[in-house]
Amino acid sequence: MSTHAPNEARVIPLRPKTAPAGSGRAAGAPQRPAAAPQPSEPKEPLWRDLVGDVLRRERLAQDRTLKDVADEARISMPYLSELERGRKEASSEVLAAAARALGLGLGDLLSLAQEDLARHARTSRLGRKSPTAQSRYDGLCLVA
Length: 144
Hints:
Layout: H1 47-61, H2 66-73, H3 77-84, H4 92-101, H5 106-128, H6 131-135
């Protein structure tokens, strides 16, 4: 059985709870959550950002439009744009189609993205070293 009268509506407040009286806040002002602490180290890039950067870089290097590459890959132009901006996680089939449209294999695309990730990792490691330790890396190169 209900505790309220049958012809009365029950009201459920939608506003957040207010600060207690005397807390120095205006009556009815919503409480704000505490700000999250800022990370001290730069964040590692996401894979989708790296792959999107490679797709865009390759497309622009070939002086091609989004429409041209999207049509050849048989994906929508807005979706290709989202991929390039790192907003969407693409399936391997879509990535392979986009890579083929750019004259690359899927392995080529992923290898280029991996090189960018390794470059970022080296840069962030060097940035954390002391200046004397960093100077040990200056002028070094790998010979294959």
